[in-house]
Amino acid sequence: MAKIINITPNDDYTLSIELNNHHKIIYDMNQRLQAIRFGELNDMELFKQVRICNGNTLVWNDQCQITIDEIMSLIKR
After folding, report:
1. What burial letters (b/e) apply to 8-30, b meaning 16+ CB within 10 Å?
2. pLDDT tens for residues 2-17?
3. Distance (Å, whole) CA 37 – CA 19
4. pTM of the model
5. 17, 32, 48, 57: least surrounded by Cβ within 10 Å?
């Protein structure tokens, strides 16, 4: 599985994700923000604090995280 090497949070609640296999993904978090799991990320300041953990997980705080596997499975739908 590819690893995340760079993440850029954008002002429209999308994430620009760069992978080590040279692929780039623009992942739209807008619908996910409606879920309890990600609701607190409606705060743009918190949303922009995203960081990469272990090359495979995007983390905002101890409660908000999403793995590259989860992102890829959602994209394939």
Report:
1. ebeeebebebebeeeeebebebe
2. 899 999 999 999 999 9
3. 25
4. 0.91
5. 48
DSSP state of 48: T
What CATH number is attached to the domain comprising 70?
3.30.2020.10
Q: Could you identify the residue written with the tokens 């590259």?
A: 68
* Burial of 56 per CB tally in 10 Å (0-12, 13-18, 19+): middle
Instruction: Give me the number of domains the chain comprises.
Output: 1
Query: Considering only CA atoms, which of 56, 37, 55, 38 is closest in space to residue 47?
Result: 38
What are the CA-CA distances from residue 62 to residues 12, 38, 55, 65, 66 (Å)? Answer: 23, 12, 17, 8, 11
